[in-house]
């Protein structure tokens, strides 16, 4: 399991879902907006580094841009003795090595930049160069709130180093909301592992339930508390609710299947900004999360 690196006095919430399009960005930006309006010191991190879109909902100027690099090995074929040590040390099969043909090369798509090959080489045949992985774009939303957008460079195979860097960059606020990448693979794990509490957003449909179960099982294996927001409530069936009841998973909020709401959102508007009622509902969601977090902490 990943070790948390966030500051001790920061409460962090990851908003996640087993698949894209269920409304996790909707929940993230509304929660962020409602709480920053309430005066909380809050940072929102768009961790969906392959397709970030939280910024679309805010009219804010870029405050800072930081490029994220990874050091990768470069093999000097003139100095290489073809001993194979770097190949043996690489845990990611990122060094192609055929000693009979005196062939060796780095497979950069697999390289994690761990540096093990550099340490392994006794012949000084390996040096390192910087590879650009992506960037973090920061936007100041108000005096004590900001949005951090992680964005990987096209063609980079893993978004993890960039999203981790963005989460690190967002330290310093009392509250961190992370809009997690969809799915349950490595980028999801690396995001939720830095959270105190995970909000899973789902739809009341068989597909929604299937993805929700997978997310819940993954979080249980990490030992993270979670609750569920049902989006498009009223659509589909009651199986998601039955599942939550059987598994004792808190239902944190329901967002109705509502065309006006969908139109507002698809037009880049945040309901919590347009409608006081929605602002209050998202503040209430935060209070519910804190209550459930408190209860789950006392049981651990
Ligand atoms: S830096 Fe690490 S992952 Fe990359 S080739 Fe070297 S040992 Fe393999
Ligand atoms: S450890 Fe160094 S010398 Fe040995 S094969 Fe790798 S690059 Fe060549």
Q: Into which percentage range does the β-strand content fall? A: 25-35%
Average pLDDT number: 93
CATH architecture of the largest domain: 3-Layer(aba) Sandwich
Major beta sheet, specifics?
Answer: 9 strands, mixed
Helices and strands: which structural class?
Answer: alpha/beta
Rg from alpha-carbon coordinates: 22 Å
Strand order of the largest sheet: 3-6-7-2-8-1-9-10-11
Cα distance, first to last residue? 17 Å
Structure notes:
The chain is of the alpha/beta class and 300 residues long. The chain has two domains: 11-68 and 134-299, Rossmann fold; 77-124, Alpha-Beta Plaits (2-Layer Sandwich), CATH 3.30.70. The protein is 34% helix and 28% strand. The chain has helices at residues 24-37, 85-89, 116-120, 160-169, 186-192, 206-222, 239-247, 259-266, 271-274, 276-299; strands spanning 11-16, 42-46, 62-75, 95-98, 103-106, 126-142, 145-152, 175-179, 197-202, 226-233, 251-256. A hairpin with a 2-residue loop joins strand 6 (126-142) and strand 7 (145-152). Helix 1 crosses helix 10 (276-299). It starts with 10 loop residues before the first strand and ends with a helix. The model has no long low-confidence stretch (mean pLDDT 93). Bound molecules: iron/sulfur cluster (SF4) (2 copies).
Structure at a glance:
The chain has 300 residues and is of the alpha/beta class.
Give descriptors for this structure:
300 residues; Rossmann fold; Alpha-Beta Plaits; nine-stranded mixed β-sheet; two-stranded antiparallel ribbon; 28% strand; elongated; binds iron/sulfur cluster
């Amino acid at each position: 399991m990943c070790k948390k690196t966030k500051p001790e006095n920061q409460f962090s919430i990851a908003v996640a879902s087993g698949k894209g399009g269920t409304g996790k960005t909707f929940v993230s930006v509304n929660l962020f907006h409602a709480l920053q309006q309430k005066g909380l010191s809050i940072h929102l991190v768009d961790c969906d580094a392959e397709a970030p879109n939280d910024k679309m909902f805010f009219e804010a100027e870029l405050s800072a841009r930081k490029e994220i690099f990874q050091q990768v090995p470069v093999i000097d074929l003139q100095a290489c003795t073809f001993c194979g040590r770097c190949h043996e040390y690489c845990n990611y099969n990122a060094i192609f090595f055929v000693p009979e043909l005196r062939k060796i090369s780095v497979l950069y798509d697999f390289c994690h930049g761990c540096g093990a090959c550099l340490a392994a080489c006794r012949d000084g045949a390996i040096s390192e160069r910087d590879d650009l992985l992506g960037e973090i774009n920061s936007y100041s939303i108000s005096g004590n709130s900001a949005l951090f957008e992680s964005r990987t460079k096209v063609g980079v195979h893993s978004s993890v180093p960039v999203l981790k860097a963005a989460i690190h960059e967002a330290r310093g606020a009392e509250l961190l909301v992370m809009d997690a990448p969809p799915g349950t693979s490595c980028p999801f794990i690396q995001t939720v592992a830095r959270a105190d509490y995970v909000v899973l957003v789902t739809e009341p449909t068989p597909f929604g339930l299937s993805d929700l179960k997978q997310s819940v099982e993954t979080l249980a294996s990490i030992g993270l508390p979670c609750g569920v927001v049902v989006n498009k409530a009223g659509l589909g069936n009651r199986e998601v609710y039955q599942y939550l009841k059987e598994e004792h998973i808190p239902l944190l909020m329901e967002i109705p299947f509502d065309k006006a709401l969908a139109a507002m959102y698809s037009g880049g508007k945040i309901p919590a900004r347009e409608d006081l009622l929605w602002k209050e509902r998202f503040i209430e969601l935060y209070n519910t999360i804190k209550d459930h977090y408190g209860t789950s902490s006392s049981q651990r």
